[in-house]
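Quick one before lunch.
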Amino acid sequence: MAVPLIDLSEQHAALRGEFQAAFKRVLATSGFIGGPEVEGFEREFATYCEVEHAIGVANGTDALALALRALGIGAGDAVAVPTFTFAATAEAVCHVGARPCFVDIDPVTFTIDPTALRRVMAASGLPVKAVIPVHLYGQCADMDAIDAVAAENGLAVIEDAAQAHGARHRGRRAGGLGHAACFSFYPTKNLGALGDGGALTCRDAALAARLRELRDHGQREKYLHASVGFNSRLDALQAAALRIKLRHLDDGNQRRRAVARRYGEGLAGVPGITLPVTAAAREHVYHLYVIRSDARDDLRRHLQRQGIGNAIHYPVALHQQEAFRFAADGRLPVAEQAAREVLALPMYPEISHSAVDQVCEAVRAWARAAHGGQG
Ligand SMILES: *Cc1c(COP(=O)(O)O)cnc(C)c1O
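Model of the pyridoxal-5'-phosphate complex:
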């Protein structure tokens, strides 16, 4: 039996009746932009993230650009970002006219390395004004160490929490760990809409007001434009769907952790691979279950032959991408090695025990053939 990398059909089939009732409610009002569904979702998502404010926007990339703009970052500024992330993290920096400053990652958690960040701050000579730690694969970055470097250098801290809905660091939820946080509700994220969507969270009321203004053409009142803003709003239909799915997020994250535990048991001691590690004081939400191997491409071909879904997040670090070559400044070896070695295995809340066991057996069979070991 083939095992997909991700399959949302079971989750959505179970919620179909609730979705239909919610869409009927929105259709009855003909209010498709903003309105009570969006306001309701914003309240509920802020409560979920344990922060004062949530602001719905069109997608996660816009959330990042809006956070930068609202914090006054633009032309002439630089922003420190990990080089091992989805392109959107650095794209948003460019979209506000600033320059990304790529930083290497920690070899165990794959998140931005605070020591490398400190080195960059001391040596780059760039006017770095902010840092965007990415909570990659569902695990929070080392926020204590990042906060220390940020405080020493007067940096704004913007969380890229697009892969970390519900994750915790020292008991505090992603979304409340910096000056502002950015979420994506792309359908495959831990909290996914039925299309594009995004949100920002923050604790500061003035910042929240600025973000609300910026997402809606800079309007403070209808047709009174206080600033040059964007069209980046969350649709009412998406907000209605997200309110339903938010109620199942903790359950989904718990199931993801159970899947990760089963992988951990099924793959323990297999030679030639390294399993994901949860760092101290983190609660992982396993947006992705990522192993690494120096024979990654061989393992990948083996899994593909067995019909087992897999993916590489990400095959090329950003400083080596054509799009960002203008901002690259030398080698970032930890990220470059990660790009050669990472492999995501099937992960979603509804995956069956037998499917996980099948993936584990396929990896063990590969290791037996490749290493002649215990497997
Ligand atoms: C998905 C993602 C984004 C962008 O979100 P969109 O909603 O697709 O714009 C940004 N950063 C990271 C790390 C992501 O995984």
